[in-house]
Amino acid sequence: MILLWLILVPLIGGILAWIASRSGSALARWISLAALAGELLLLLLPRPAPYGRWLAELDLPWAPELGIRLHLAMDGLSFVLILLTAVLGIFSVIASWSEITERVGFFHFNLMWTLAGVVGVFLALDLLLFFFFWELMLIPMYFLIVVWGHERRIYAAIKFFLFTQGGGLVLLIAILTLSILFMRQTGTVSFDYMALLKIRLPPSTATLLMLGFFIAFAVKLPAIPFHSWLPDAHTEAPTAGSVVLAGLLLKTGAYGLLRFVLPLFPEASIHFAPIAMALGVTGIIYGAVLAFAQTDLKRLVAYSSISHLGFVLLGIYAWNSLALQGVVMQMLAHGLSTGGLFILVGALQERLHTREMGRMGGLWAGMPRLAAIAMFLAIASLGLPGLGDFIGEFLVLLGTYRIAPGFAAAAAAGLVASALYALLLIQQVFHGPPHAAPAPPDLAPRHMLVMGLLMAGLVWFGLAPQPVLDTVAPGLDNVTAFARQR
Amino acid sequence: MLLPLVPALPLLGFLILFISGGRMPKRAVEAVGVGSVGIAAILALIVAAGFLQGPQTPLVVAWPWLTLAGFTPQFGVRLDSLSLVMMLVVTFVGFLIHLYSAEYMEADEGYNRFFASMNLFVAAMLVLVLADNLLFLYVGWEGVGLCSYLLIGFWYPNPANGLAARKAFIVTRVGDALMTVGLLLIYTRLGSLDIQTAMGRAAQQWPQGSVAAVAAAALLLGGAVGKSAQLPLQTWLPDAMAGPTPVSALIHAATMVTAGVYLIARTHVLYDLAPPVKEAVAVIGTATLLLASFSALNQRDLKRILAYSTISQIGYMFLALGVGAWAAAIFHLMTHAFFKALLFLSAGVVIHRMDEEQDIFRLGGLRRQMPLAFWTFLIGSASLAALPLVTAGFYSKDLIVAAAWQDSPWLGAAALLGAFLTAVYIFRAVFIVFGGPPRHEPHGPTGRRVAVPLLLLSVLAVTGGFVQPPSALGGAPLFTDFLGKTLPSAPATAEAADGVTLASGLIALAGIGVAYLIAGRHWFAGALQIPPARLLERWWAAGWGFDFVYDRLLVRPFLRLLWWNRRDFIDGVYTALAGLIRLAWRLLSISENGRLRWYAAGIAAGSIVALALSVFA
C-alpha cells in the first residue's frame, strides 16, 4: 500500500495546496513542502525485508475484462529515482518561493501533479497504467510552462507538447500492438509487464515494436535528433519547471529504456545498440558544442543536459553492470548538478531580469556566494573527479570501452567540449569587468540551504558512491535477468 | 600513519578557507593558508625520516572508494623513493611559495580566495604524486588543472586573464581526454587501475612492442604532454603568466608542469614495453627544449622568458625519460623546482617593486637598487644555466646530457646546444635587468616573509645537486641509487660522462659570454639587427607561430562552424516541417470559401474522377 501512497500524497497535496491558496499563497507553499517531506519520509520509512526481486509490490485488479491491473512495484532503480523526485521536488518548491507570485495555488497543484506522474512512471508495472502516468506528467507540465513561463512560453509549450505527445502516440500504438500479439499467442488479455515479458516475437516484429518504445523514450531523453524541444521548453519554463524537466522528466526516458525496451526486446536491442550508441555519442558532443554556442544562459544549461544524457544513452546500450551503474549515477548527479544550475539561473534572472550572458559579467565581486556555488556546479558538470558526474561518466566510459572502444574514445572527446561551455558560463557571467553598477543581493539563506545540500550530495556521490551502487544493483540485475528469460 | 595527513592538511586548509568565505581576518587566513602547508611539510619530513631509517619498503595506506563488478579503485597513498622525493619537493617548495605569498599578496582583496586555491593546488598535487591508483592519481591530475585555472584567472576583471585561464584548462584537457582513454584501455586489458598491479601485469602479459603497450603508453603520454606543456600542447604555459607571480612559481616549480614527468616515471614499465613511444618521448623532449630555448631568447617579458625556460627544462626531463634515465629526470625535476621557484620569486620582487613592469628593456641597473633580488636571481640563473660545480642545475643537467649522449650523439648534441642557449637567454635577462645604468627608483620594502624563502631557495639552488656529484668529480650516485629502488637505473655512464661534463661546463660559460655580448651595446648585438635576423626573431618570439596556426586551423573554423549552426540545424528541420504543414493548411483552407458554385464544381470534378477510375481500372 505504501506504493499507492507514494503516488497519492503528491496528488492530494496538490489539491490541498490549490484549495488552501484562497487563504494565502504561503499556505500553498507550506502544504506542498509538507507533502513532499511526507513523501520523502514515506520512502525512507523502514520496510519489511524485500521479498522476491521487488522492494515492495502492489497488484490489484482494476479493469479485469480489459486486462488492466493496478500493478506497482519498486526495486532499487525506482527507489533512487523516486528519492531524487522527492528531493528535487522540495528544491523546486523552495526555489519558486519568491519567483512565483501569481496563481500560486494552481502552480503548486500542477507541480505536485507532475511529480505524482513521475513517481507513477517509476512504479507502474502495467503498461497501460504506465502510459496513464506518462501522460499525467505532461499536461501539468504544459500548464507550468504556458502560464508561468517566460517570453516565448506559448511557442515552447506547444512544441514540448507536440514532441512528447507524438512520442506518446507511438508508445501507445506499440503497447496496444504488443498486447494484441500477446492475446493472439495466449488467448488472454493483459497489459501486465511480467506477463508480457513471456511473449515470443518474430525478429522483424520485435524490431518494429522496439523502435516504437525507443522513439517515445528517445524523445523524452532526449536523444539526437529528437532533442529540439528541450532547449525551448527548459528555457521558457519557470525555474521549478526547468528543474523538474531536466532533473526528472528526462530520466523517465532513460527509465523507460531500462525497464521496458531492454527486457522486452533484448535481441532487437542488441542489434540496435550500435545505432543507439552512435546517437548517444553524437548527443554528448553535439549538445556540448551547441551549449558553447549559446548566448542565453538558460539555453546553455539546457544544451548541456543533452550532452549529459548522451552518456546515459551510451551506457544503457553498452549494457553491462559497469555502464548501467554509471547510467544511474549519471542520472542522479545530473539531476543535482543541472537542477542546481537551473535554480541559480532562475535566481540570476530574478535579480537581473535577463538571461543574456552578454549583459552579465563581473558578478563575482557582488555575489561571491552565488558565484562560488556556480563554479562548483559548473566543474561538477564538466566532470571533475571527486564529484558525482565524474563517477557516472567514468563508469559509463569504462563499461562502453569493453564493448565498443571507438565509441568510448569518441565520448571522451566530450570531456574537452564540456570544459568549453562550463568555463564559458563562468567567464561570461561571473568574471570580466562588472556590468551592473549596483550589485544585486547575493543568495538568500533559503537558497544557500538548498545549494549546500546539492553540493553535499554531489560530493557524496563522488567520494562514497557505494551505498547508491549497492541499492541500485538488484534493480539493474532485474533488467538483465528479465532480458535473459527471453 | 602520518602519510595521509600530508595531502589532507592542505585540503583541510582549503575547506576552512572556502567555507569561511572571506569572513576571517587576514592574519587568520595567513595562519591557515601558510600553516597548513607548513605543517604538511614538517609531517612530510617526519615521514621521510622514518622511511629512510627503516628498511625502505614501500608504505601503503588505502581506503575503499567503490567496488563494482571487479572494479575496485581505492583512495590509496603509497610512499616509495619516487613519491618521497616528489612529496618533499611539493611540500617544501610549496611552503616557501606560500610564505612568500603571505606578504606578496597582502594588499589584494582576494587574499582568502588566493590561499584557498593555493592550498587546494598543493593538496591536489600531493594526491597526484602519492596516489597508488591511476584513478585516484587522476583526481589529483584534474585537481591541479582546476587550480591552475582558478589561479591563472585570479584577477578575473580582466577578460584576457580569463582567456589565459580557460586556454590552460582546455589545452591540458585535450591531453586529459587522451589519458582517460588510456585509463580505460589499461583497466579493460589489465583488469586493474592499481599502479603496481597494472604495471606488474603489463610486464607479464604484454610482449615488448605490442600494440596494447604502445597504445597505453602513447595515450598516457598525451596526458603528460598536456600537463607538462610539451609539443604540441605547450601553448598554454606562456599565457599562464596572467596569474600572480607566486602562482607562476607554484605552477612551474612545485606543481602542475612536473606532473607529466612524474606520470611517465611512475608508469615507466609501459614505456619500456613500448620502445617507439619511449623514443617519441625523447624526440618530443628534445624538440621542445630547443624550440622553447629559441623562444626564450627573444622575449621582452621577464616572466615569459621564465615560462619558455620552464617548457625547455621540462623538455630536458622528457629527454631523460625517453632515453631511460628515469632517475636523472626526477633529479632535474627536483633541482629545477628549487631554481625555478627562486627565479620566479625574485622576479616577482622586481616586478612588484617596479610598478608591475615586466618588460626587461624598461628595467635596468637594478643590481645596486635591489641587492637581494639581484643576488637571488643571479643564483637562480646560474643554476638554470648549469654553471659548473657550484650550482645544483649543473649536476642534474649533466646527468641528462650524458645519458642522451650515450643514447645517440644527435640527442646529446641537441642537449648541449640547449644548454648553451639556456645560458644565453637567462643571462641576457640578467645583464639587461640588473646591469647598465638604473632607470627607475624601486619603491616599497622587502619584508622577511619574502626574504626568507628567497634565501632558503638560494641555498637549495646551490647545494641541491650535491646529493649526486658526477663520478668525474669522485662523487657517488646517492640519489639515483635511492631512486633505484623504484626506478631502474640507467646504464653506467662513467666514461662517457667525463668528456660531457667538461663540454657542458665550458658551454655554459660560453653561453654567458655570448649573453653579455647580446645584452650590451656591442658590435655583436648590432650585427643581429639585420632584417632576416629580425624576422627570425619575431617568429621565435611568437613561440614559433603555434598559437597562430592553432587559431587559424582549429579555433576559427570551429567558431565559424558554430556560428553557422548557432540555431541548431536539426531544429530547422522541424521548423521547416511545421512551415510545410502550415502551407498545406493554407492551401486547403482556400477551398473552404463558402461559394456554392465552387463546391458544386468540386463535387462534379470529384465524381468524374471517381467514375473514370472505376471505368478504366
Features:
heterodimer, A: 486 residues, mainly alpha, two-stranded antiparallel ribbon, 75% helix, B: 617 residues, 2% strand, globular
Short note summarizing the structure:
The complex is a heterodimer of chains A (486) and B (617). Chain A has 486 residues and is mostly helical.
Task: Note the topology.
The complex is a heterodimer of chains A (486) and B (617).
Chain A: H1 2-20, H2 25-44, E1 56-63, E2 68-74, H3 76-95, H4 104-123, H5 127-136, H6 138-148, H7 153-186, H8 193-196, H9 203-220, H10 229-236, H11 239-264, H12 266-292, H13 297-318, H14 321-352, H15 368-381, H16 388-403, H17 405-429, H18 445-463, H19 466-485
Antiparallel strand pairs in A: 1-2
Chain B: H1 5-20, H2 26-53, E1 59-64, E2 74-79, H3 81-104, H4 111-130, H5 134-152, H6 159-190, H7 195-205, H8 211-227, H9 236-239, H10 245-254, H11 258-266, H12 268-273, H13 275-297, H14 302-322, H15 326-353, H16 366-369, H17 371-384, H18 392-407, H19 409-434, H20 448-463, H21 478-483, H22 494-519, H23 523-527, H24 531-541, H25 546-564, H26 569-591, H27 596-616
Antiparallel strand pairs in B: 1-2
Notes on the structure:
The complex is a heterodimer of chains A (486) and B (617). Chain A has 486 residues and is mainly alpha-helical. Chain A has a domain at 268-471. Chain A has helices at 2-20, 25-44, 76-95, 104-123, 127-136, 138-148, 153-186, 193-196, 203-220, 229-236, 239-264, 266-292, 297-318, 321-352, 368-381, 388-403, 405-429, 445-463, 466-485, and strands spanning 56-63, 68-74. In chain A, strands 1-2 form a two-stranded antiparallel ribbon. In chain A, helix 13 packs across helix 16. The mean pLDDT of chain A is 88. With 617 residues, chain B is mostly helical. Chain B contains 27 helices and two strands. Chain B has helices spanning 5-20, 26-53, 81-104, 111-130, 134-152, 159-190, 195-205, 211-227, 236-239, 245-254, 258-266, 268-273, 275-297, 302-322, 326-353, 366-369, 371-384, 392-407, 409-434, 448-463, 478-483, 494-519, 523-527, 531-541, 546-564, 569-591, 596-616, and strands spanning 59-64, 74-79. Chain B has a two-stranded antiparallel ribbon. In chain B, helix 5 (134-152) runs antiparallel to helix 6 (159-190), helix 13 (275-297) packs parallel to helix 19 and helix 18 packs across helix 22. The mean pLDDT of chain B is 85.
